């Protein structure tokens, strides 16, 4: 009887840039979005691949017998950034900071480098996008000069590693990971293969030498970190730097943190002299018109673990246009339209004539949580009835289509912050119906 030979098993197709596999050929890799990189993989003989068994050098231990060592952290000198990181930078960790172009990533990290160097540590700042003169000019403007802060303008990974060997720094900052390339990987700088290899090499150096590394990451037009998804898996901490160019406020929030929480938010303010932390941002989103002008109402919004008072303003103007406009800034337009319908149905508060409706937050802050519903509804009711909201109240609560006010998450934290700021009454789930809220809040 003839012995059946093992036939080669087709391995499908594989992307040469990021390694993504598929059973059918496609022209564009859906993982790294590169064209023409999907090629047929080499077939493997069925039954020939078998993992070898190796005796472990260290036996597995019960989790209850594993000792817990406290994580040593080094403060950066920026209190708001330390808040997000959980108290400071862990030696040997790799931190990725991403954000829109021009939001202030380089300015923030240059300030961090200066403050760390001012304590006597050696810091290596690798700028792969700017010249040494440009970085020096920014450092002079922001007061970030220090003799132990070393600058290097290199785009070759091998040269960057050589600089680390020569300087022997206590902190390395690479701006940015998408502009550094290596001859060990194929593709252009910023491609998935290059970004993966550069990040892996820097991570390996950080772990072997116990040096923290800060990486700047670009983002796509959708706000996602550019490059392969494996970049976020390689690093220990992923932080997003958010902010509107029209405002001076910036937020840093951690979306991944192996050494701390991910529900902390750091507040910064951008100025001509640089970027500074804002430990108490309570006055940034309030105007002097609270309690005196119709159409204004204060709510307590949560940014991470921090409750921030935000003023919501509404304006209702009669119009002769066939299609009245709804213009919003900082809140969801669909949510505002729904609240207008709830006001009309359950509170019997609606414009007597076709009107344009404008809703905005003070300071350009964006609020997406449902707890702002009650503030929007009361601001609209105040603008329609032309009666101001009492200035000593702040409101929180989600409004359902039935007109019911539901409690906001972490109400106790919001209430304590409201009392600290002098707001005597925090309306919310204690009021059963929207009609009662309007009668209670709007002065006669």
TrEMBL record:
- Residues bound to ATP are 99-106
Q: Where is this motif: RadA KNRFG motif?
A: 256-260
**KW Phosphoprotein (keyword) present:** no
Which residues are in the RecA family profile domain? 70-219
Q: Which gene encodes it?
A: radA
Say which family it is in.
Belongs to the RecA family. RadA subfamily.
Q: Which UniProt keywords apply?
A: ATP-binding, DNA damage, DNA repair, DNA-binding, Hydrolase, Metal-binding, Nucleotide-binding, Stress response, Zinc, Zinc-finger
**This protein's domain notes:** The middle region has homology to RecA with ATPase motifs including the RadA KNRFG motif, while the C-terminus is homologous to Lon protease.
Region (Disordered) residue ranges read 55-79
InterPro entries linked: AAA+_ATPase (IPR003593), DNA_repair_RadA (IPR004504), Lon_proteolytic (IPR008269), P-loop_NTPase (IPR027417), RecA_ATP-bd (IPR020588), Ribosomal_Su5_D2-typ_SF (IPR020568), Ribsml_uS5_D2-typ_fold_subgr (IPR014721), Rubredoxin_2 (IPR041166)
**Function summary:** Plays a role in repairing double-strand DNA breaks, probably involving stabilizing or processing branched DNA or blocked replication forks. DNA-dependent ATPase involved in processing of recombination intermediates, plays a role in repairing DNA breaks. Stimulates the branch migration of RecA-mediated strand transfer reactions, allowing the 3' invading strand to extend heteroduplex DNA faster. Binds ssDNA in the presence of ADP but not other nucleotides, has ATPase activity that is stimulated by ssDNA and various branched DNA structures, but inhibited by SSB. Does not have RecA's homology-searching function.
Q: In Gene Ontology terms, what is one molecular function of this protein?
A: damaged DNA binding
Enumerate the Gene3D superfamilies for this protein: 3.30.230.10, P-loop containing nucleotide triphosphate hydrolases
Q: Can the keyword ATP-binding be found in this entry's annotation?
A: yes
User: Do you know which Pfam families this protein is assigned to?
Assistant: AAA_25 (PF13481), Lon_C (PF05362), Zn_ribbon_LapB (PF18073)
GO CC annotation terms, alphabetical:
cytosol
Region (Lon-protease-like) residue spans: 356-444
Its name, as the record gives it, is DNA repair protein RadA
One GO biological process this protein is involved in is: proteolysis
Q: Please, which domain of life does this record's source organism belong to? A: Bacteria
